[in-house]
Each structure stands twice: as C-alpha cells, then as structure tokens.
Input
Amino acid sequence: DGKALLACSVSKELTDRFRAGDIIKDAASVVGGGGGGRPDFAQAGGSDPSKLGDAVARVSELVR
Output
C-alpha cells in the first residue's frame, strides 16, 4: 500500500551494545516514520518506501 515496514532483531548477547528500538527509530526516520520496541526486537513503519535502501544503509552505519 505504498508504505515501508521495518523490523530489527538483536541477539540477547548483544543488547548491551545495540538496542533494536534505538536502531529502528533511527532507520524509520529515513523512510519518514517512527517505531520502537524491545531491546531485542523492534518494528517501524514509514510513508516513503523508495528510501528503504537508505534505511538499510543507515543500519549498517549504526552497527559498525
């Protein structure tokens, strides 16, 4: 329906370094949306699916 859907999972062993909710909020802003969730799993939506590639690239930057 012309919307972007994002999901992020972080293994429980890594939640002290990376929090899925923080990652998904940042990535969702790229596609014009928002979201959140637990430290190990989060979901988000956005209104601009044409920027999904940019959102995935942003996640790569965040976890480097």
In short: The first strand starts at residue 4 and ends at 9. Residues 25 and 35 are 5 Å apart (CA to CA). Strands lie at 4-9, 33-37, 41-46.
